[in-house]
Design a protein that fits this description.
- It is built from nine helices and nine strands.
- Strand 7 and strand 8 form a beta hairpin.
- It is 39% helix and 10% strand.
Length: 282
């Protein structure tokens, strides 16, 4: 009986010790990783104000991570935003989508996933937004970071439209994706010699050029009309330049300026330009 009692006491002590050990082990186990519950959300459609200015929804400070499984899903997710940017800035939606696909690794690249930077835009001087570091041409380069991809698309538009080296691109029509692709390389957007061919291949393989069409017609294309005097007249739209108008109507810039008695190259939205002089003979 004594031996049995001693055995029970020892067994009880061991069991209590095991339980205590388990409790102690469990209590010390703490996660150092901050878990943030993220839900997949589709991009909110950017909105136009009454004055035509393209305003994005306010940034609420929450980082939204997108999980893209295919090229088709990428296009379905971001094509509307690319078209909105085309309306606002005149960059072909096909070019924006192709660059986004290429620079983001089809939406699956490490940089895109951790920064929502779909265009590989580096910090550059004067950037005051969020940033992250990633190995690219050099080790640990600084890249811009956005809480939502839509802000990356907007920054891409601003980046191209605000730098003089890309100015010649905006002389091109928005359906001229081939020259846009070549122009981006010539202006120094990428160091890859085959950059234009890669963009063009993406555009043609996935028919991205179809997104360069808005409301059943090309952007800023409005049929010139013949007035009562027989003149062919064109009304200037947002994004037009004398050069783009001259190409569209197969007339030289010099001829346009002479017909409209212009000394400079400045035109304004709503201005009527004579494309062909009156056919009415007095």
């Amino acid at each position: 009986m004594i031996k049995k009692g001693v055995f029970c006491i020892i067994l009880g002590a061991v069991l209590i010790g095991c339980k205590a050990k388990k409790r102690a082990t469990y209590s010390k186990k703490k996660s150092t990783e901050k878990v943030v519950k993220r839900t997949r959300t589709e991009p909110k459609a950017p909105k136009y104000e009454d004055n035509g200015y393209y305003a994005l929804p306010a940034d609420n400070g929450t980082f939204v991570r997108f999980t893209i499984h295919s090229v088709e899903e990428y296009i379905a997710t971001f094509s509307e935003i690319a078209q909105m940017e085309m309306k606002a800035y005149g960059i072909p939606a096909s070019i924006t989508l192709a660059q986004g696909l290429l620079e983001s690794g089809l939406g699956k690249g490490a940089l895109a996933l951790k920064t929502n930077n779909h265009f590989g835009i580096k910090c550059h001087k004067g950037w005051e937004g969020d940033r992250d570091y990633h190995d690219d041409d050099e080790k640990g380069e600084c890249f811009r970071k956005y809480n939502h991809p839509m802000y990356s698309f907007r920054d891409h538009s601003i980046f191209l439209s605000s730098r003089s080296r890309y100015a010649s691109l905006f002389e091109l029509d928005t359906d001229d994706y081939r020259r846009w692709a070549k122009g981006l390389k010539q202006a120094g957007y990428a160091t890859d010699r085959k950059y234009p061919q890669k963009l063009i291949a993406l555009i043609e393989r996935h028919r991205l050029y179809e997104y360069d069409v808005l409301d059943g017609s090309r952007k800023n294309v409005q049929e010139s009309v013949e007035d009562a005097a027989g003149r062919l007249v064109y009304t200037v739209k947002k994004g037009d330049t004398l050069y783009s108008i001259s190409r569209r109507h197969d007339v030289s810039v010099a001829a346009l300026k002479e017909l409209n008695r212009m000394e400079g190259n400045t035109i304004s939205i709503g201005q009527e330009l004579t494309i062909r002089p009156s056919r009415v003979h007095k």
